Amino acid sequence: MPNLWYKNAIVYCVDVEKFMDASGDGTGDFAGLADRLDHLERLGVTCIWLNPFFPSPNRDNGYDITDYYGVDPRYGTLGDFVEFMHAARDRGMRVIIDLVVNHTSTDHPWFQAARSDENSPFRDWYVWSKEKPENAHEGMVFPGVQDSIWSYDRTAKAWYLHRFYDHQADLNTANPAVREEILKIMGFWLALGVSGFRLDAVPFLIDTKGMKLEPGSFDPYSLLTEMHDFMAWRRAGAVLLAEANIPYSDAPAYFDGGDRMNMIFDFMLNQHLFLSLARGTAAPLRHTLQNRPRPDGLGQWANFLRNHDELDLGRLSIAEREEAFAALGPDASMQIYERGLRRRLAPMLEGDMSRLKLAYSLLFALPGTPVLWYGEEIGMGENLALPEREAVRTPMQWADEPNAGFSRAATANLIQPILADGDFGYQNVNVAQQVREPGSLLRSITRLVQTRRSTPEIGWGEWELVDVGRDDVLALSYSWRGARVVTVHNFSPEPVSFPLEIDGIDRFEPLLADHDAQSAILRGETLDMAGFGFCWLRCDGPRK
Ligand code: NOJ
To answer: Do you know which Gene3D superfamilies this protein is assigned to (predicted)?
Structure first.
């Protein structure tokens, strides 16, 4: 039997340097993260995803690596990593880590060797061109900040490919030595106990742009199969989670029936979910779910609201994106890369608790595995004074204490300013206060997590859309091993009432809702929902 733990997992993404500073030098570290695992345990997290923590000049938040086999000294030692792994395992939490092998930092010794000697074995580890390629100014991932995907290197006397910033040179994955090294990196971290990888930038990793290849000599997807096979041999139950903002038509090749990716982040659903929130109707989300490929038994979509990057709305039409911008981030300072918003969820929804709770209930109710970004559980805000995506990466707000309880360093020495003052400043938004407050977002999300964990129908079961005859409401039904659950979400600010009638169900028992008092509903009885209300119901009736 395959181990499908990831289908009912609660994934929580942490940036070590921003979470908790135990050493007191102003930067978060592994010892601090280990100290704060109690918070994640209380929340109900089952899997921690670590953003890159490897040695790096940190010009792209660690996604620019100079050594794949170590821990950046600012976060501790490899020994501290192992201690953290032990502490997480003690609490029954798995750990997955970012695997960033589309590119290395240009400071990486491999690139340094490649650029300085044409005959170096590392030369062919990267993608070069003697002439400036014609398409050099097309296909940038960070338009407005990056103006080319090829840069000239004076030492190499050649152009190198970089789909991201010019300090991130793309690796030549057609080179067998590069592929072997990728597997070795995986083997190293698997040996230290990780349960898999969030694979960075997969569409670019399997792109053959600029590579000198004989037609038909190389199938880029084979890299994904190799990686998956290797991982499964080394560690049963480990997973590959793809960061791939792809059209749905590409998804089957990424999953390949469970032989390549176990999970893919559903960027398509994410963007339409935000359009739904902006419009106050479930229609875009419902339409997207209807078109979403259903991975076979081994595959799973990963759902998220926000992450460490911008909210990318590039797959909406121009008019839809404008609509979302107007509702969620109207100021030019909130927008980025001609397609996205560098905002956290709570300020986007103007701190409106009913909308926030609706959004998180949805996250846990959508078919797939939910992924949280640290700080979401308390509704942290963004700092638009910081450059680019740094806006959404401010230090964790633990308490209304100096430096928000993140660090005892002098404030001037912090890795990044703490969000202070205003509605989302640490004085108003912090863990300590929300632990105490019964109606807090933290308490609501904790309850959602617990309910989701005890509702395996959602992660493991089959799902279908339920037509309740209204555009503003999303109703989903899930069944697994003869048990059935229904969730209902009202996207509109207005209360709604409608009869709840689903074939084969006699009675709906309340599991969870936006309000406490709720009684069972019999077949055909009216369901009354508040504006932005939601409810999860367990169904009784003849079993299928
Ligand atoms: C995707 C990551 O999520 C992003 O933060 C990073 O800048 C790029 N990949 C490049 O690694």
So the answer is: Glycosidases (3.20.20.80), Oligo-1,6-glucosidase, Domain 2 (3.90.400.10)
